[in-house]
Amino acid sequence: MKLRSFATTLGLAVTLIAGLSAPARAARGITIKGSDTMVILGQRWAEAYMGASPGAIIQVTGGGSGTGIAALINGTTDICQSSRAMKDDERKKLRDRYQTLGTEIPVARDGLSIYLHESNTVKSLTIPQLREIYTGVITNWKAVGGLDAPITLYSRENNSGTYVYFKDHVLLGRDYSARCQTLPGTAAVVNAVARDPNGIGYGGAAYAAGVRECGVQKATGGPAVLPTEATIRDGTYPITRFLYFYTRTRPAGDVKKFVDWVLSADGQALATKVGYFPVR
After folding, report:
1. pLDDT digits 0-9 by tens, 188-237
2. C-beta separation of 96 from 223 below 8 A
3. So where are the chain's domains?
4. Do 14-109+243-274 and 111-234 come out as alike in CATH topology?
5. Which of 62, 63, 54 is nearest to 28 (CA)?
6. Which of 33, 86, 148, 224 has its CA 20 to 30 A from that of 15?
7. The CATH number of domain 14-109+243-274 is 3.40.1280.10
8. Any idea what DSSP says for residue 264?
9. Which residue ranges traverse the bilayer (predicted)?
10. How far is the C-alpha of 206 from the C-alpha of 279, rounded, in Å?
11. Backbone angles phi, psi at 269, to 5 degrees
12. What is the spatial distance between Cα 247 and Cα 91, in angstroms, rounded to a whole number?
């Protein structure tokens, strides 16, 4: 899957302002913070909603899912965008501060692509092979049917929901190899792999421009599946996930109106246009 041409610098604030004064923005605006994977999607949703809702003000910033969840707990954002589910200790902090466990709202589906350089001869990898590559057991492409060359590992930073999801669901909680290079944002991972014939990375399927997506097998002998709309929606692609909004309490007022629009046919169609998939 390729990201439709909505280029932006991930990890930096994307502020969308509809022209009201600062006091009006503070009084009436909605703040959204979190996942870098979702920041472009959040931006497009905000732009479309503001265009259809005169007077609506929405500010979207990235920084990572963990950063967004921390902002939700600290009361500095209305909505957290997260590419992973909240952890138990994060929910406990919400409960201790607000007497609530928060509200989880799945808003889109995504697949985690495995990025390879376009010259890489490896066509598919199993989940166990990916686990051994990213934990440092397999260090040469020859071990998985490729050329005799060292594998260069690229990953997201540990405040990223993508980093956590990959660790939990692919590495099964094991530590990443010390050789793994962590980068600030999916775009940085894609750019690194695109320049490195021996590189491997992972990230949202919508961002895989300039690299080759590797087929993924659940186990040896199983079918190699690429992340497509069909395989992500039906769950046959092995690394498929939901993307979430989190709020401290059940959405109300302007926040509820925006969330309802995101889950509407128009909002879900826009998610597909950007490169993600409807939640239902």
Report:
1. 999 999 999 999 999 998 889 999 999 999 999 999 999 998 999 899 99
2. no
3. 14-109+243-274, 111-234
4. yes
5. 54
6. 86
7. no
8. S
9. none
10. 15
11. -65, -35
12. 11
**CB contact at 8 A, 241 and 111:** yes
Q: Rounded to whole angstroms, how far apart are CA atoms 180 and 134?
A: 7
Locate 108 and state its tokens. Answer: 């889109």
Give the model confidence (pLDDT) of 46-78 as tens digits: 999 999 999 999 999 999 999 999 999 999 999
Adjacent-strand bridge partners of 150: 140
Chunked mean pLDDT (size 10), the chain, 280 residues: 38 37 51 96 98 96 96 98 96 96 97 97 98 99 98 96 96 98 95 98 92 96 93 94 97 98 98 92
Q: Does domain 111-234 have CATH number 3.40.190.10?
A: yes
**Side chain identity at residue 107, one-letter code:** V
Q: Distance (Å, rounded) from C-alpha 20 to C-alpha 254?
A: 16
Token representation of residue 270: 């826009």
In this structure, what token pair is assigned to residue 183?
Answer: 């980068």
**DSSP 8-class letter at 144:** G
